[in-house]
């Protein structure tokens, strides 16, 4: 537990989260849709 507190492992960078939501998730969504279409 000490490491989590001392090294702030619980801290989340909201900018990183927003970047993933706006940039990475749409790409992942498209890749999943393409995969599912190919598998049918």
UniProtKB/TrEMBL annotation:
Protease found in the keyword field: no
MF terms in GO: hydrolase activity; RNA nuclease activity
Xref: Gene3D superfamilies: bsu32300-like
Superkingdom of source: Bacteria
GO cellular component: toxin-antitoxin complex
Record keywords: Hydrolase, Nuclease, Toxin-antitoxin system
Family stated for the protein in its record: Belongs to the HepT RNase toxin family.
Protein name: DUF86 domain-containing protein
Taxonomic lineage: Bacteria, Pseudomonadati, Bacteroidota, Bacteroidia, Bacteroidales
